[in-house]
């Protein structure tokens, strides 16, 4: 009798254990795995355009003016009297001078201007690597630890110029193309030369007075 009870108890215990295991497996499959995490989607950076006097320039072949959105990889073109700035928020900004065509690329920690033609000034903020380049090669980078400013001019038929002031120096000439200035439009160097020559001629009698002694009248 005792043997039958023991066998029955063992059978019941095995059945209960099997049932508990089945319930545990079902619960584990129903619950989401705690080790799986949702993929993090990197937020896209959108830059903003500002143009001088709200003039329209060209972005990817389309007209755009102040307030327009600029996405990475955009090709921006300015005319002879147009100046624009692309503000890339926490990364920095790119100043685009007249008669310039440039491709601006950016992502978290990186801001690049590829100058196809013309002049730009790139300002990279701290924690951002700024870079200027041509289609052939990179010409300079900033230190992300401190940020920095890069300026570059890339004119047809001339080697690219890189250094402080080169972009700003090229802008007035492009904006004032065809206007020499100075006296009668001949240019300031020529004007200064003419004024100097005229002043020298006017002062000559002061330093070299003419002989005012009248010759003796002839004896008849």
Features:
220 residues, 27% helix, 13-stranded mixed sheet, 3 helices, single chain, disordered C terminus, rod-shaped, alpha+beta
Our estimate of the beta-strand percent is 25-35%
Task: Supply the number of helical segments.
Answer: 3
Shape: rod-shaped
- The helicity comes to 25-40%
Structural class: alpha+beta
Q: How many strand units?
A: 13
The major sheet is characterized as: 13 strands, mixed
Q: End-to-end distance, in Å? A: 186 Å
- The averaged pLDDT comes out at 77
* Uncertain spans: 172-189, 199-220
Order of helices and strands: HEEEEEEEEEEEEEHH
Radius of gyration: 39 Å
Task: Give a description of the structure.
This protein has 220 residues and is an alpha+beta fold. The chain has a domain at 47-175. It has 3 helices and 13 strands, in the order H-E-E-E-E-E-E-E-E-E-E-E-E-E-H-H. Strands 1, 2, 3, 4, 5, 6, 7, 8, 9, 10, 11, 12 and 13 form a 13-stranded mixed sheet that branches. The longest helix has 29 residues, at 2-30. The radius of gyration is 39 Å and the shape is rod-shaped.
Quick summary:
This protein is α+β, with helices and mostly antiparallel strands and 220 residues long.
What's the topology here?
Elements: H1 2-30, E1 47-51, E2 57-59, E3 62-64, E4 69-70, E5 74-77, E6 84-87, E7 92-96, E8 101-107, E9 110-124, E10 129-133, E11 138-141, E12 148-154, E13 161-162, H2 166-175, H3 188-207
Parallel strand pairs: 9-10
Antiparallel strand pairs: 1-4, 1-6, 2-3, 2-5, 5-8, 6-7, 7-9, 8-9, 9-12, 10-11, 12-13
């Amino acid at each position: 009798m005792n043997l039958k009870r023991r066998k029955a108890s063992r059978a019941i215990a095995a059945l209960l254990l099997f049932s508990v295991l089945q319930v545990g497996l079902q619960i584990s499959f129903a619950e989401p795995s705690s080790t799986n995490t949702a993929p993090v989607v990197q937020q896209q950076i959108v830059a903003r355009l500002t143009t001088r006097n709200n003039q329209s320039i060209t972005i990817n072949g389309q007209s755009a003016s102040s307030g327009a959105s600029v996405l990475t990889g955009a090709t921006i073109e300015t005319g002879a009297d147009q100046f624009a700035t692309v503000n890339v928020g926490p990364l920095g900004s790119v100043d685009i001078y007249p008669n310039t065509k440039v491709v601006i690329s950016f992502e978290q920690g990186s801001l690049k201007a590829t100058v196809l033609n013309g002049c730009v000034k790139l300002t990279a903020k701290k924690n951002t690597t700024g870079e200027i380049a041509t289609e052939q090669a990179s010409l300079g980078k900033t230190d992300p630890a401190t940020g920095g400013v890069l300026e570059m001019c890339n004119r047809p038929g001339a080697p690219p110029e890189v250094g402080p002031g080169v972009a700003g120096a090229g802008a007035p000439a492009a904006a004032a193309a065809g206007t020499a200035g100075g006296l009668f439009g001949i240019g300031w160097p020529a004007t200064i030369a003419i004024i100097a020559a005229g002043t020298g001629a006017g002062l000559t009698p002061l330093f070299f007075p003419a002989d005012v002694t009248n010759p003796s009248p002839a004896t008849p």
